[in-house]
Specification:
The radius of gyration is 17 Å and the shape is globular. It is built from 7 helices and no strands. It starts with a helix and ends with a helix. The chain is mostly helical and 190 residues long.
Length: 190
């Protein structure tokens, strides 16, 4: 598979997963009384797909080399956690929100670092990625602490966390991944 095609697949995948994550977040905000087995199935599938897209992104050659720099190991982690949630989600249901919080917090921290690198690189919308990452990190931390211990509020916080994580990854795909025709010519020459 050529580099330009891999990059387009990764960027499109990022956008699709980001939109799906936003929809999941909104659905949890609208209906916080969500059956845990449906939530585990949705999360497992989303994490597996997101992990695969992140691994593909890592092996693509984007112009800025910012968006996917931490995605190989994180993609493997996401896919593994997604598989565990799919297979044994209800067994882990007491820990599920803490696990989600840690995953979202890690994603936010990687994106904060990426946004600081983007600022050094001269990308003007770096602050949008930074802001979305900080908000995602705050909600991820709330899920780790889980002050309501499984109450409906935890589902609402989970909804906000996924909504902002989706927006964060949408910002990354839009602002930090560039596909240029002149760049594709340069890649073809290599």
């Amino acid at each position: 598979m050529d580099s330009l095609r891999t990059l387009k697949i990764a960027r499109t995948g990022y956008i699709i997963i980001a939109l799906i994550t936003c929809v999941l977040g909104i659905s949890l905000l609208i209906n916080p009384v969500y059956p845990i087995h449906y939530l585990c199935t949705a999360l497992g599938l989303i994490f597996i797909a997101d992990g695969i897209i992140k691994i593909i992104g890592y092996f693509s050659k984007d112009l800025y080399c910012l968006a996917f720099q931490y995605d190989f190991a994180f993609g493997i982690l996401l896919a593994t956690v997604g598989l565990l949630i799919l297979i044994r989600g209800e067994t882990y249901s007491r820990l599920l929100f803490s696990i989600l919080g840690l995953i979202l917090l890690a994603d936010a921290l990687f994106r904060i670092q990426m946004s600081i690198d983007a600022k050094k690189f001269g990308l003007n919308p770096w602050w949008r990625i930074f802001l979305a990452a900080v908000i995602t990190g705050v909600f991820g931390m709330i899920l780790v602490v889980n002050p309501y211990d499984g109450a409906g509020y935890t589902m609402v916080f989970t909804g906000f966390a996924f909504l902002f994580d989706g927006l964060l990854n949408l910002c990354v795909a839009i602002y930090a991944v560039k596909i240029l025709d002149c760049f594709s010519d340069r890649l073809s020459a290599k």
